Amino acid sequence: MSVIADVVIAALLLLGAGFALIGSWGLVRLPSTMERLHGPTKATTLGLGALLLASVAYFQTRLGIWTAHELLISLFLFITAPISANMIAKVHLHRVRIGAISEPDSIAGPPPRPDGEGDWATFEAPRRDNPASTANS
């Protein structure tokens, strides 16, 4: 049983370290803010989750102790990472739209321009001529 537990723990550690490395590398190497959000919010979150599961498995198999600290950290991380990334993306799109910042050309193409094409979730009030707007009624 100890060999199987060691293999599972080692696999979770390698998987977590790999995801964290890829996410951190994406954070450093990707050119635009919107692309850099994917590294820490997706890959690094999964990597840290695997590392925390490895910690839970280690303490259970070696010491016979169930720890809830790692599970609470994982829960907090999985709840807060998408919400914070969404808020960062909204602020970034708003600042690009009003012209407060300029974004370099990125792999995904240019950022949305304030020409009225395609509505993004920013702090702009809905327009009356938009068919999907609730302000038409």
Distance between the termini: 67 Å
Mean pLDDT value: 79
Supply the helix-strand structural class: mainly alpha
- Count of folded domains: 1
Query: What's the total count of β strands?
Result: 0
If you compute it from the alpha carbons, what radius of gyration comes out, rounded to the nearest whole angstrom?
Answer: 21 Å
- Low-confidence residue ranges: none
Question: What global shape is seen?
Answer: elongated
Estimate the helix proportion, in percent.
55-70%
* Sheet with the most strands, sense and barrel status: none
DSSP summary: helix tally: 4
Range of strand content: under 5%
Q: Write the element-wise H/E pattern from the N-terminal end onward.
A: HHHH
Describe the structure.
The protein is mainly alpha-helical. The chain has one domain (2-136). The chain has helices spanning 2-29, 33-36, 38-63, 69-98. α1 runs antiparallel to α3 (38-63) and α3 runs antiparallel to α4 (69-98). The longest helix is centred in the middle third of the chain and has 30 residues, at 69-98. The chain is elongated, with a radius of gyration of 21 Å. Keywords: Membrane, Transmembrane, Transmembrane helix. InterPro entries: PhaG_MnhG_YufB. Residues 103-137 are annotated as: Disordered. GO terms for molecular function: sodium:proton antiporter activity.
